[in-house]
Amino acid sequence: MQKKIEGKTGSEWVNAGVNYFDAGKFKEAIDSFKKAAKIYPDSSDIWINLGAAYENVGNYKMLVQCCEKAININTQDNMAWFNSGIGYSKLENYKKAIESFNQAVKLDAKDKNAWFHLGLAYLKTNDGQNAAESFTKVTKLDPKYVNAWKNLGRIYKGTGDFKNAIDNFNKSIRLDPDDSVIWYEMGSAYYRLEKKLKAIESYEKSVSLNPKSSEVWNNMGFAYKDIGKIQRAIECYEMAVKTDPRNSTAFYNLGIAYNNNGNPQKAIECLENALKIDPKDKPAKVYLKKLNKQISE
Fold first, then answer.
1. 209-248 as b/e, with b when 16 or more CB fall inside 10 Å?
2. Rounded to two decimals, what is the model's pTM?
3. Rounded to whole angstroms, how far apart are CA atoms 216 and 211?
4. Which residues does 42 contact at the CB level (< 8 Å), separation at least 6?
5. How far apart are CA 184 and CA 216, in angstroms?
6. In this structure, how many other beta carbons lie within 10 angstroms of the beta carbon of residue 32?
7. Residue 200 has pLDDT above 60, yes or no
């Protein structure tokens, strides 16, 4: 005779849990899977499902505990190791997350998501080399895995390998051409290679997708300034302070641009604004003092 809890068999509680889970009723799913686990305590699948329900209510400690139960039952369960890695990542225990994800990819070397999250965990421990190897593995398994290309680009950019960074950013943009952040990051990589026109092209694309990024407007202004287009630089800096009135760096750059464009009074106004935001801004203090002295002479 099958064991029952509240008149339902283990299978019925599992089915109820799945239905609640699919309906987004995770607390009810947890209750159902817990009852199923009491009837079938040696079912790794039930513990995995219970852990997934806990994950959806933000209880990552219980997610990890459920995965440990599943792993103790079946050490070859790839999903249990993967979910364990997710739980440890959420708990910011990246060493344990790496251990779990490594076990997951040992069991299934073609699990692109496990490789990807392994890469993310390595990034959190500042292990760029292993992170890059993990993301590269993802791109070989799935060349359309856009976030792997993005992260590879960021890793190469962080190490100063701007050519490879641009190559990977371009691959991600082919898959996701509307990502304003990647256009910006590619622009900054071009800028570091002294390819100012390519940098501007990327920045312009970025602000066309997201015109509210003060940082991009400011950096684009800097690039225009470098190629001698002061008026366009001023327009960019103006947009930077408009989108973020607390951007003291943009006010400082705007002040310098106005002075270079023959408008010292406007420059002083901008530098004063920069110092209101950041009274400890030494370059702004020095430049403002210099301008005030020039005007008084």
1. beeebbbbbbbbbbbbbeeeebebbbbbbbbbbebbeebb
2. 0.89
3. 9
4. 73
5. 7
6. 26
7. yes
Tokens of 8: 């339902």
d(CA 49, CA 19) in angstroms, rounded, equals 12
Confidence check: pLDDT of 18 > 70? yes
Q: Tell me: the pLDDT tens digits for 166-181? A: 999 999 999 999 999 9
User: What whole-number distance in Å separates Cα of residue 199 and Cα of residue 195?
Assistant: 6
> 2-7: which pairs have CB atoms within 8 A and are 24 or more residues apart?
3/39, 4/39, 5/35, 5/38, 5/39, 6/35
**Rounded to the nearest 5°, which phi and psi values hold at 262?**
85, 25
Instruction: Please report, for residues 46, 196, 200, 288, the alpha-carbon distance to residue 238 in angstroms, rounded to integers and kept in the order given.
Output: 58, 20, 16, 19
Integer Cα distance of 173 and 165 in angstroms:
12
**Around Cβ 183, how many Cβ atoms within 10 Å?**
23
d(CA 151, CA 132): 8
* Whole-angstrom distance, CA of residue 229 vs CA of residue 233: 6
Q: Name the amino acid, one letter, at 165.
A: A
Q: How far is CA 53 from the centre of its chain?
A: 25
3-state secondary structure of 287: helix
248 close to 261: Cβ distance less than 8 angstroms: no
CA-CA-CA-CA dihedral for 88, 89, 91, 97, to nearest 10 = 30
Count of alpha carbons within 13 Å of 254, Cβ hemisphere only? Answer: 28
- Cα three-residue angle 178-181-187, rounded to 5 degrees: 100
Question: Which residues sit opposite 4 in a β-bridge?
Answer: 9
Residue 219: is its pLDDT beyond 90?
yes
235-279 pLDDT tens trace: 999 999 999 999 999 999 999 999 999 999 999 999 999 999 999
Q: Which residue has the tokens 């990647």?
A: 182
